[in-house]
Amino acid sequence: MCRQEKAATSSNWLLLYNGSLLLCLLLMLGLEYTGDQTLMHSAIYYRVLGIIVPVVLVAIGRASGGRWRITMLAAMYTVLWLAGELDLPFIPGTGKAGSRVLRPSRIWSRSAFPALVLPGAIVLDFILGRFASRSDTGKALIAGAGFVARDSSRELAIRVFHDVSLRAQLDFSP
To answer: Could you tell me how far CA 127 lies from the centroid of its own chain?
Structure first.
C-alpha cells in the first residue's frame, strides 16, 4: 500500500469519526424531544430523528465512499454515545452556589440510551448499494421508504408482542 492510499484510508476513517461526532452533537441537541421514553409514542420523536439521522448518515456515508460506510458511521456513533454514558458517573457534579436542589447529587446523572440508528443504517446501506445505478431521486425515495419501513416494522413488532402479552394476562379461561 502506497502513501497516498494510506492517507486516503486514514482520511476516510477521520471523516467517519467526525461524522459520528456530528451525529452525537445533533442528537444531543435533539435530546429534548428524543430523551424521554413517553415521547416515543408521539410524532415529534420520529420527526426529530427523521430529520437528523438520515441526512447525516447519507451525507457522510456517501462523502467517504466505499461499502457499508453508513453502518460503520452508525456503529461509531453508538460506541461514542455509550462511552460517554459510561464515563459520566466518574465526573464529580455539584450544584450552583445558592441554588435550591431538592436531591443533591455528587455525580453526573446519565441521560437516555442512544437512539437505535444501527438497523436503519444497515437498511440505508443495503438499499443505496443495491440501487446504485438508479437516479439520485429514485434512490432517495426508495431509501426513505426503507428507513420508514424499518421503523414501522419495529413498532409493529413491539405492538404485537405487547398485545399478545396483554391478551395472555387477560385470558381467564382454564
So the answer is: 18
Which of 53, 49, 51, 52 has the alpha carbon at shortest distance from 39?
A: 49
Nearest to 22 by CA among 130, 68, 61: 61
Q: How far apart are CA 78 and CA 95, in angstroms?
A: 29
Q: Where are the alpha helices (DSSP H) in the chain?
A: 3-29, 31-34, 43-64, 69-87, 118-130, 136-170
Residue 59 burial by Cβ neighbours in a 10 Å radius (0-12, 13-18, 19+) = middle
pLDDT band at 174 (very low <50, low <70, confident <90, very high): very low
Per-residue CA distances from 12 to 3, 17, 22, 166 (Å): 14, 9, 15, 48
Query: What's the pLDDT score for residue 89?
Result: 73
Task: Report whether 80 contacts 115 (CB < 8 A).
Answer: no
The three cell numbers locating residue 49: 430523528
Task: Indicate the average pLDDT of the chain.
Answer: 78
List C-alpha distances in Å: 97 to 88, 101, 103. Answer: 21, 10, 15
